[in-house]
Amino acid sequence: MKACSRGVVTAVVALLALLSFRLSAVASGAVEEKAGAPAKEASPPPNAAALYADKCAICHGADGTPKPVFAQKGVPNMKAPEWQKARTDAQVRQSILEGKEGTMMSPYKEKLSAAEIDSLVTYIRSFAPAK
Ligand code: HEC
């Protein structure tokens, strides 16, 4: 009986070790994939300009400057250098992912892929006038 339960313990330990090895392999694999991006991308890269025109321009304006009626509702002028400077890419991404509660800005994390949201962040950055 004693030997038997020791056997079980050994098996469980071995299993846990195997599992954590698998997990770390998966984790490092994920990191590699991110660094070397294209590997997983079977579909063509998202067209940020079309996406923005389709889903965002109505409120944010085609070039990042909202129409006055939307500006009055709190839509920021994303073409303004001051706005561009005041927001990090991470903040912009977060706003698109989670939206802004209590405003017309709804979350897009369930509507757009991570790659699409990343491409929108880059696209929004392109509104900034060249220095
Ligand atoms: C229905 C109107 C509407 C649509 C559509 C919309 N937004 Fe917004 N968005 C807003 C409003 C209003 C705010 C300001 C929220 C606030 O008061 O903080 C905002 C804020 C943001 C911000 C944060 C601005 C800041 O100052 O940090 C980003 C980034 C943004 N929107 C990106 C997008 C993108 C990208 C899309 C398309 C995928 C989109 N929005 C679609 C209305 C909209």
**Named CATH architecture of the largest domain:** Orthogonal Bundle
Count of individual helical segments: 7
Structural class of the secondary elements? mainly alpha
Q: Let me know the CATH homologous superfamily of the largest domain.
A: Cytochrome c-like domain
Radius of gyration: 23 Å
Order of SSEs, N→C?
Answer: HHHHHHH
Q: Roughly how many Å apart are the termini?
A: 77 Å
Largest sheet: number of strands, sense, barrel closure: none
- What is the name of the CATH topology of the largest domain? Cytochrome Bc1 Complex, Chain D, domain 2
Strand content: under 5%
Q: What small molecules does the structure contain?
A: heme C
Oligomeric state of the chains present here: single chain
Number of strands: 0
Q: Could you say how many structural domains there are in total?
A: 2
Describe what you observe in this structure:
The protein is mostly helical and 131 residues long. The chain has two domains: 2-37; 48-125, Orthogonal Bundle (Cytochrome Bc1 Complex, Chain D, domain 2). Helices cover 60% and strands 0% of the residues. It has seven helices and no strands. The protein has helices at residues 2-35, 48-55, 57-60, 68-71, 81-86, 89-98, 114-125. It is elongated and about 75 Å long. The N and C termini lie far apart (77 Å). The model is unreliable at 28-34 (pLDDT under 50). It binds heme C.
